[in-house]
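Give me structure tokens for this 182-residue protein.
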Amino acid sequence: MENKTNSNLGVAIVYALIASVIGGGIWGAIIIIAEYQLGIIALAIGAITGYAVYLAAKENVTQAHKIIAAIASLIGIIIGKYTGFAYLLNDGFEYFLNSFTRNVFFQNFSEFFSMYDIIFIILAVITAWEIPSKISKKKAVEANEADENIDRILGAEESDNADLNETTTENQENKQETNNNQ
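Here you go.
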């Protein structure tokens, strides 16, 4: 069982990183196109990293999965901020990953996060943390309801079969009585 959990954690890390890169890239594109940062996109990054981790966990969500989702959401937010910053600083992607751009970004890291950004980042991390377990619980409830419905249907069929058997037995007894009386 431990190997399955470990492999799910590895898959969760990969899924979460893919989601964070996609989410960060989308946020960066929005920053580039609009030349404006929408903090609400951070929530979307938190949501997609959380969902990605849920998919990898296969309804077996642990605290480790939630930590992976939260960290991945932070990575996605940083990717988005860096993408927008690097593009606007260099007037394009030509020097996107050069050392000057990276150094300027990380030396001024705190300058890129206003109070609103911090609020949205906190909300994104909470979203990433909560989504895997919320979806997992919802799926478990749906599965239990489905099982109960199946049990009710099977119970009704068994009851119908018992009634049918009882009726058949009564009919056979009535036929025997009729034959005996003749």
